Amino acid sequence: MDGLAGIVREAGRAGDRVGYFAALYRQVTVEVRTAVHGGLFDDGARMDRFDTHFGNRYFDAYDAWRRDQSGPRCWREAFGLLDDPDTIIVQHLILGVNAHINLDLAIAAARTSPGEAIHALRRDFLLINDILARVVVTMQDSVDALSPFMSLLDRVGARTDERILDFSVRQSREEAWYNAVLLAGQNEEEREATIQRLDIRAAVLARLIARPGSLVRPALELIRSTENDDVPAVINHLDNAMERSSAKQGTA
Question: Which of 65, 91, 122, 236 could be stapled to 79 by a disulfide with Cβ–Cβ 3.0 to 4.6 Å?
Answer without folding.
Answer: 65
